[in-house]
Design brief:
With 229 residues, the protein is mainly β. The protein contains two helices and 16 strands. 14% of the residues lie in helices and 38% in strands. The radius of gyration is 23 Å and the shape is elongated.
Length: 229
């Protein structure tokens, strides 16, 4: 009888350990990688000062991925994924006074369309837009399912301008040139901290800016910073 009792205890412990391991394998796991740079031609780029035509701008992005399932065990979705981004010099000095809230490329721009207050003339229709405070938050938080990935927009460079700028929702209010996230030509460290319902991940990237669109890119050899959970 004593042996049966011991065996039942051992069996219960084994079952508990197996369920514990399964729960660990089901936990969402975020990784950060650089993504191919995107050049946006006239899709929302700021107008040129001279003739009002659209000018080119280039965005660098970080790919945020919830790792695939393992051993046939499906991971949970990473819920409420959001990012805070810091810009540092090569000697680790802060370049901006505050962290920048990350913006997800796939989510809506924080605009709402407003009714026109005048009757447009033929060929002169104008679309009025305003900024929606609700969409600011909506485009900063996202859920990522197992095996899926999302692009986090980091920095924008506008054609024929030496300066680049951190890219976030507030950039739409600043004609894409956010003064608080202004970055001079050169090399910068970009620290991306991603948080979600089950953890935190932090990675460091190198931003190269030689002053032109062609010499503006994010180094694909990033150094991962481990965070104690």
């Amino acid at each position: 009888m004593c042996l049966n009792f011991v065996l039942s205890i051992v069996a219960s412990l084994l079952v508990a350990i197996i369920f514990y391991i399964i729960e660990i394998l089901k936990k969402s796991k975020i990784t950060l990688l650089t993504q191919t740079d995107s050049i946006i031609d006239d899709d929302g780029a700021p107008p040129a000062a001279v003739n009002g035509s659209r000018i080119k701008e280039k965005l660098v992005r970080v790919k945020v991925k919830n790792k695939e399932s393992f051993l046939g065990i499906t991971r949970y979705p990473a819920r409420g994924v959001h990012a805070r981004i810091s810009f540092l010099t090569e000697t680790n000095q802060k370049e901006c006074e505050r962290e920048m809230h990350g913006r997800w490329a796939s989510l809506e721009k924080p605009f709402i369309y407003l009714p026109s207050d005048t009757i447009p003339q033929f060929g002169q229709a104008v679309t009025r837009v305003g900024i929606s405070p609700e969409l600011f938050r909506n485009s900063e938080y996202i859920d990522i399912h197992a095996g899926d990935e999302e692009a986090l927009e980091i920095v924008v460079k506008i054609e024929n301008e030496e300066i680049s700028y951190g890219w976030c929702n507030e950039s739409f209010l600043e004609n894409h040139r956010h003064k608080q996230f202004r970055l001079n030509k050169g090399i910068h460290k970009v620290v991306v901290k991603v948080q979600w319902d089950a953890g935190v991940e932090k990675s460091e990237f190198i931003l190269h800016d030689g002053g032109s669109l062609d010499t503006f890119f994010l180094d694909k050899h990033n150094r991962v910073v481990q965070i104690k959970r």
